[in-house]
Amino acid sequence: MKTLVYTLQQKSRIIHKSIGFLLGFILIFSSSLKAQNASIGFSVKTECLYAQATAFSYDTSCQSLSWREGGSTKVLGYGPIFKTKYAQAGGYTLCLKVVDNCKKWDTLICYQFKVTDCPCDTQKISMKTVYDTTTCGKVKFSTPGATNTANSKKYSYSWDFSDGNTSTNGDPAHTFASNGTYKTCVTIKWALNGTNTSCSRTLCETIKVGCYSSKDTTTKDTTNSGGGKDTTNNNDTTGGKDSTNYSKCDWKSRGLKFNAVKNTTTCGKVVFEASNLQDTCVQYKIAMNGVILSEKRAYTHYFTQNGNYKVGLKAYDKCKGCDTTIWTEIGIDCFPKDSTNGGNDSTNGNDSTQVKTCDWSKFDFTYTQSKSNCKRYLIKATTTDSCVTYKMKVVSGNTAIYLETGSAHEFTFPSNG
Fold this sequence. Notes:
The protein is mainly β. It has helices spanning about 1-35, 120, 245-250; strands at about 40-45, 50-55, 65-70, 75-80, 80-85, 90-100, 105-115, 130, 140, 155-160, 165, 175, 180-190, 195-210, 260, 270-275, 280-290, 290-295, 300, 305-315, 320-330, 365-370, 375-380, 390-395, 400-405, 410. The strands form eight sheets. It has a four-stranded antiparallel β-sheet with strand order 4-3-6-7.
C-alpha cells in the first residue's frame, strides 16, 4: 500500500514537471514567434562594391542589435546602421540578430543581395607621360581609361608632382623647375551621386629631369675686366654677376646682343631683336615685368604711354645646357602731355587727358566647347591684327590659373564653376 501511494505520488510529480516544461516551451516558442512576426527588420542599399544595412521598427530601450555575415557567429558590427565594402562582386547574405533584454527573447533576420563592380575597377586605367622636347622640364600627363565624357560618370583627379605643385586637371602639363627625380602620383576617384566615394585608384610614375645646366659659381667671364660683371647691363638685378659659365657657352665671343629700335612714324612702336647667332641650338625669350612677350629672337611691341621700360632677353643653348640674360632699357616720350602743365607732367605723361589712339569697340572673342570633353574650350579672338599683342588669363576667385600670349587657345577647366 505504501509502495502504491509512493508510486502514485512520484507519478504525480513527474506529470506536473512535464506540464510545467511543456507550458514553458509553449511560452518561449510563442515569444520567439511573436518576435519573428513583428515588424522588426532591415533594408540593404548597394552601390558599386559598397553595402549599407539599416534596421527599422526596433525598441531602442530594450533591444540590442548586432550584424553577422550569413550563418556566421562572428559579429561584424553593432547598432542600427552597418556599412561595409566587399572585395569583389557577387551574392552575399547579411544577418541582423535582435536581443530583447526586457522580454528575454532573441531572433535572427537574414537578407540576401548582390553587389557589382565599380566602373573604375573594371576599366584599365593607366598613367601616361610624355616629355616635351622643346621645353626643359615640361612633362604632359594623362590617364587613359578614366576620361570624362558627357554620358559617363564623372571622375575627379588629384595630382601631386612632389615638387610642391598640384593639379586637379585630367591631363595636366607641368614644368619641373630644376634637375632631379620626382615621384608624380595621381589619385582618380569616382563619386556616388556626388557624395560618397565609391572607389579610387592611385597611380605613380618616376619623372627624371636632367636638362637644366649646372651653374658654375667658380668660373667668371675672363674676357670682361670688370671682375666678372656683365658690361652689357649695368643695372643687372643680380648685382651684375654672370650666372652662366662662359667657358662653356662663351656668349660674348659669339656676339650675342639685344637691340631696341624705335619706329620714327608710330609713337610707342619698338622693335626688339637679338643678334642672329645662326645656331639652331639657341632658344630665345623676350620678357618685361615678369611676363614673357615672345619666344622668338625678334618682337615688335607697342607701348601706350610715356615712361622708361626695362626689357630682357634670355638666350638658352639647349645643346650645351647654358643660358644668359641681357637687359635693355627704352624710354618713351612721344605721347602728348597735359598742355595745362607746361609739358612738365610729374606723372610722366600718364595723364587722364592723354590722347587715345586705339578704338577697341570692335574687339571681341568667342569660346567653343569641345564635343569630346565638356570642360575643354577653344577661346579665340574675333579680330586679329599684327600690331596687337594678345594675352589670355582665366581667373578663379582672386587667383589667375592660366596666362599665355596669343589670339587663340585651348583651355581645359579643372572643375565645374
